[in-house]
Specification:
With 173 residues, this protein is mainly α. The protein is built from ten helices and no strands.
Amino acid sequence: MSFRLRFPASEIGTWAGRFPADVDRDVESVAPGIRKRGYLRRPEFLRLCAWKTPRTARRCASNSAALIKDATKLAFATADERAKIGILRLLAGVDWPTASVLLHFSDRRPYPILDTRALWSLGVTAAGRYDFDFWRRYTLFLRGLARSTGHSMRTVDRALWQYSKERQKARRS
């Protein structure tokens, strides 16, 4: 499966600018402290998990503060990509999409958020089950896109999400 941006890369700034400014203000405000410290505190972890999907709140809350600190410290410190995402996915309530949010807002390296809207904006309509190879290709593609356009990963993520929000036909229930 390959990724293909559905709109010209030159429009990333335009689409990102249409993203609602207040949607991620709360989670973005905690990111610098997490990156400096190198791990998540339990309230930050719960905030990021709830921001991605409130459905997993109970499972995420079952993780102890010590486990969250130890797992995120280890994940954010390693350069091994498979270990990094794998460690985060060991936390209760954390699967590929939520792990990608933890990395996006907390790791010192740029990571995209794995999201159906972003995937749709890249021409992927049925991702199915995620695995490491898919996540790695997605990450490398979006890092390359961010680098080649001079935009941050956050800007690219906002553009992909907003483009889908405005252009993808509503799903039928």
